[in-house]
């Protein structure tokens, strides 16, 4: 057996083991409020939502159909999608990195992406980034086939159409996918061989058709989602530019892990000099996010859309990847162990996983029982994450969402004359301890919430777990 064949077998064995570990993590870590919010979406499938397109809801609906309304059901497709996604990236390296020996180049690229915390831990959760990364990796594979110089212009057309469709599905997952499309457009316009082919131009209508459901939903709902996401670009606070840029860099160092982040940066610099296609697809998002950070905060997960591209670009730096991959897996392993077992008894403010996931089961039941003991017939919640988490965790009392976003769903409107309103306490000391309940882990409060007296509340009734 050749050394290359042995490496390939070892890699797929490692990836299979990682998939099992990610499934265990997905099954045993409680949902975050945002994941519960996306689960609520899956109970009312539509072509768009206020915050994101529909794909994450569709994935959750498929997962819960298989594994039920459980954390594993919500997240099931995340760990499973990494296998075909890694296969696609592995093969994409063959043509997108023509100066490197394959399959070694494919192994290195797939290992780099899997070693990032963004994919390593992110694959065990379910957010819009999960399907986004999957479809971007598949897009990179079809794109690599489309630009194959051994194909005729006519022979490349099916691969260009596939690239347009997959990029559209990435857009149906998260709007940031449009940045990859803009980068590809720049590469095509600046490369005579690609510009003269019919394939890239035929990919545009394929992309548009795939994006159409989200566009039509927005048109039907007064462009609510486009205006919400586009409105973020209108915020401009240049006095805090250094803070925002520092947060952007710190977030990427954390999510990529430090050594892989350095490889990403050096690889991008190398691509600017000798790999025009990868440089365009990475630089356009980098410039957009960097410009945005001059006036407003860039959330750490937003640049996730370019991680597969940067994993390919990293090889262009010509550096050894082994230390970066090992350190990335070690960081991901440490975070995963902390998420599962909390061996370091950190205070909640220093443990982001515990802060988001800890104590929900006992808290939700305690809230519902206390409300019912006071004669309430419903729980009224304004915060969307808290409302979704209470709806997912308990089925003692219905949850009424009072935020205006629920009007975009097909949930029944309800008026409850005996609802107790629940709000997170923003101040240090509650005024009335008897009207306060806290999420606790090991007897330590994570978040405390105030409960009002029963009152009449109008809102949308959210679906429960049953």
Automatic annotation (TrEMBL):
Q: Where is the Glycosyltransferase RgtA/B/C/D-like domain?
A: 51-217
Major place of localization? membrane
Q: Which UniProt keywords apply?
A: Cell membrane, Glycosyltransferase, Membrane, Transferase, Transmembrane, Transmembrane helix
Localization, UniProt: Cell membrane
Gene Ontology biological-process annotations: lipopolysaccharide biosynthetic process
Q: What is one Pfam family matched by this protein?
A: PMT_2
Annotated protein name in UniProt: Glycosyl transferase
